[in-house]
Each structure stands twice: as structure tokens, then as C-alpha cells.
Amino acid sequence: MGVPGPFPGSAGRPDAPALDREEVDRALARLGAEYEAIETSLLALQDHAGRRLLEGAELSGVTKERWAETERSLAVLWALFDAYTEVLTAARELRGRRRWLSAEDLAELSALLRDGAVTVPAAAGDEPRAGGRIGLEELVGRLNGLYARSLDVIVAADAVWSALPARIDLLAEELQRTRSLAHSVGVRPGEHPAGDDLDRITEELTRLRARVIADPLAFWVSSGAGSAAPGGGRPDTARYDRAARALEDIRREVAAVLDVRQDAERRLMLLRDVLSRADRTLTEARQARGEVLAKIAASEVPAVSGPSTVLHEQLAAAAEYRRRAQWHRLSPLLDSLEERAEDELQRARESLTAVTAPLAVRAELRGRLDAYRARLARHGLAGDPLLMERYDVARRMLWSAPCDLRAAEQAVWRYQEAAAEAVAPEPRDGRGEP
Questions:
Q1: 13 within a domain of the structure (yes/no)
Q2: Is there a contact between 50 and 154 (Cβ–Cβ < 8 Å)?
Q3: Contact criterion met (CB below 8 Å) for 411 and 365
Q4: Cα–Cα distances in angstroms (integers) from residue 137 to residues 30, 84, 104, 244, 374, in the given order
Q5: 131, 30 in Cβ contact below 8 A?
Q6: In contact, 112 and 27? CB cutoff 8 Å
Q7: Domain housing 239
Q8: How far lies 11's CA from each of 7, 30, 114, 414, in Å?
Q9: Model pTM greater than 0.90?
Q10: Which end of the chain is flanked by fewer CB atoms within 10 Å, N or C?
Q11: Helices (H), 296-325
């Protein structure tokens, strides 16, 4: 909760002559504004969340000592403020008695407003000149000092309580999640060093949280003497940071073990998929080879080998390693299998491409033949006897089985040549006549 800054200082001069009526009125107006600022600041300090927490907490250590001092300072603050109220009230009553002030009135008002008119309460026994009289300017200075010191303690404790316990609780939740995950992969106390570290971090977080709640100021790093702002500094998170780093190290170690287990299954599944695709591709290549031999004549079609039995045996061995949790043997085998399985799939694809090449050539010739026929139709030449004859010859070759690709290619070429001559423009003489 924010509170107003330090109180403005009084401008009174104790060694000056008596004030005149206008100076008295200006001084009363200024002191009234100061009074309202002081009252607002004190009420805000009284209502500060950090102060309420400090009042209700079971404190220890440096926080207990400083809060005891702060409670005494707060009592002095209110006692001095009450004294200030009495002087200001008396001055206002004296000023309000008559419109025109006599010399005696002005002298009395001057003494009240700037001289040693405030009696320091006995409650301020730890203050210099306790029980004596001070001027309003010195009073405001004391109020400023007490206010700043009190606010510094309250803001610092509140900042630590606002920052560290919540972060510790979040880290504790993360620790529990890590512990559950660690147990699922066999990282347990007494069985794995990381399991023992988890127990140590749990104990450290429990101790740290209890200490932060009881002694927050022990975890406050002040900005130094150069900082004038109350609460200048930051929470000391060194112990929390060490615990967080240690937990992160364990989390990475557990994640690595988990990754080995989970990644092994994923990699095995991918390997099975790659080898399955390679086997299906080789089956397709063998089927395509039979089709090519039946449909294409005078063509050399390469043989297609069967699936790699060695790779399938090694894949079965890898699955057995995983079942027995033999990660040190499984990892290098998977590395080798992944590379060789990709090579096997590439070999199968190349075999399929090689055996289906004649079918691709036939399909290209068929497409070329139909394209030229469509071109002739656009020129109105589809019914030309020579073109029809050459088209029929080429078509019979391409759609017969087995197909002689060399003869069919020659027939398509002859039809293409005749089509080009048919659609070529007629030559013209010098006068532009055909």
C-alpha cells in the first residue's frame, strides 16, 4: 500500500521579530496544510498492510527487534502529532478571538508558531530533550525522521512477504511435480543421487519459508546510505535461488532419463514405420515389375530384392533392449538403425522408379499423341486421311500389350511430324498471294 512522502518542513525563524497579522495568517495556513499532510501520512501508515501483518505475526530475530523499536517510534509519532495538534489549535483559537490583533497577541502567536512552543511528551523518552520544549519546525523534522524509519521497516517486511513466500510455494509445487515424475522413472531416495537431493531441497524450502515468515528483515538487502526513499532495497533471494537452481538441475536429470525412455519408444515406432514403408514399396515394385513385363515388350526391367532381414532382426533386438531398460545398449543401436532404415527406404523407392520407368515412357507417349490430335482438331484437320492413318497406327501400338516402346515412339514421331506440316502456314509470293 502506498503512503504519502515525508512531511513538508516549517518555515519559521525563531530569531525573527514578532510576526504581523498577515504573516500570522500565512503561517497558520501553511501549518494547517502541513497538519493535513501529516495526518494523512500517519493514517496511511497506520492502515498499511505491512504494519497489520507485523502486528499479528510471531516474529523472531532482527525483525522482532526492529519491530519493537518501530512500535515505540509509532507511539512517539502519535504523541508528537497530538502535541502539534494542541499548539495549532491554541494558535487558531488565539487568532480567532478578535479581528485586529494587539502587539501582545502578535507576540504570543509568534511564540506559538515558531519558538519552543511544543512540549515533548514523556512518551518520547528516547528522544533528545524529552519533556522539554521545541519549535514547530524541529517538531516536523522529528516527525519526518520517525516516519521514515518506521515506514522503512514496514515497507521492507511487506516487500519480503509479498515476494518470497509465494515464490517458495510455487517452487514447492514444482518440486512435488518433479518428485512424482522422478519416482515414475525410478529416481528415488536411496536409489539415485537425484532422489536424495530432492529430499534435501524439500527440507530447505520448509526451513526457508518458516524463517521468511518469522524474520522477513533477515532477507532484506538495503540499497545503502545513499538511498533516501523508505524501503529502498530488495528482497534477498540467495537461498531461494540456490534451491531453485538445484531443483532445475534435478529436473533436467529426471527429464533426461524420461526422454531416453519416451524417445526410445518414439524412435522405435518411427523405425517400424520406415521399414514398413520400405517393405511396402518393394512389394509395389515387384508387382509393378510383373505388370511391366506383361505390358512392355523389348524392355530390360531390373530385378527387385526382398526386405532386409538383418534390419528387422536388429529392430527386434532394440525392442528387447527397451523392454529390459538397457538404455546404454539401445541408444547406439537406434542411431545405427535410423540411418540404415532411411537408406533401405531410399533403395526401395529407387527400385520402384526403375521398374516403372517403361510405364512412365508409355504414358508420356500417349499424352503427346492425344495432345497433337487435339491441336489438329482445333485447326479443323482431324479428318485428314494421312493424319488419321498415322494416328491409328500409333494408338494401336501404345494401347496394345505387350507394347513395343521403340516402335511406338517412332509412330508417334511420324504422326507429330505430319501434324506439324499440316498446320504450317503456306508460303506466299512477293505480292502476298499464295
A1: no
A2: yes
A3: no
A4: 12, 10, 23, 51, 109
A5: no
A6: no
A7: 160-222+233-256
A8: 13, 9, 8, 117
A9: no
A10: C
A11: 309-323
User: Which amino acid, 316?
Assistant: A
> How many CB atoms within 10 Å of residue 265?
11
* Cα gap 352→403, rounded to integer Å: 20
Q: Domain check: are 146 and 35 in the same one?
A: yes
Which grid coordinates belong to 353? Answer: 522408379
Q: Which residue has the higher pLDDT, 409 or 278?
A: 278
pLDDT band at 126 (very low <50, low <70, confident <90, very high): very low
Q: pLDDT tens across 400-424, in order?
A: 878 877 888 888 888 888 878 777 7
- For the chain, the domain total comes to 4
- E strand map for 17-148: 118-119, 133-134
Would strands 233-235 and 296-297 be described as parallel, antiparallel, or unpaired? Answer: unpaired
Whether residue 366 sits in one domain with residue 390? yes
In one-letter notation, the amino acid at residue 329 is R
Residues 88 and 167 in one domain: no
How many Cβ atoms sit within 10 Å of the Cβ of residue 56? 8
Confirm if 384 and 422 have CB atoms less than 8 A apart.
yes
**pLDDT tens-digit map of 320-371:** 888 876 665 777 788 899 999 999 999 999 888 888 888 888 888 888 888 8
Answer yes or no: is 430 within a domain.
Answer: no
The dihedrals phi and psi of 117, each to the nearest 5 degrees, come to: -100, -10
